[in-house]
Amino acid sequence: MDQVLAILGFALVTAFTPGPNNTMLMISGANWGVVPSVPHILGITVGFPVMVFAVGMGLGGVFEAYPLLHEILKYVSFLYLLYLAWKLARSGRHDTEGAREGRPMSFLAAALFQWVNPKAWIMAISAMALYVPQGGTILPAVLLLTAIFALTSLPSSATWCLFGTAIARFLDSDRRVAIFNAVMAVLLVLSMVPTLF
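^ that's the sequence the OP posted. Answer follows.
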């Protein structure tokens, strides 16, 4: 039971702290609301635990054996995040017909984003190092980690999206939306900086 509580504490802290997923969910909630953002929320809720399971079953060892792959993934991730930040910074304004520009991330895009999300990699690899015993049967420990991350991903994702909807009340003009999205895009890029150095 102590092990489960320790893992739960780790999962809650890492899931609720700011990072690329949470920043994008806040932007999505602020620009489009909760209901249109549900596929984004569910994509993270499913995609991250799948990644945790894959890392636990050996994918993390590939990076240990081939550190260059990790370096390549890190910079590809950063470039992709720059692209996403650019798209997010330009979204949410109204077009000439009054409709919001852009759209929330889809389920598949959010699930696949976990594979280039540096915070997700750090969380998954750290969890494996801390809570999966070396040698012997690892499947029960990996399944436990996967289940706990699945349970914490949904409330974390929903909370950050709801936080965005609360902010939306103050975004009553395209100018304010543009400023908010630009600031959030910069914060999204800055969230990557610690992983690069």
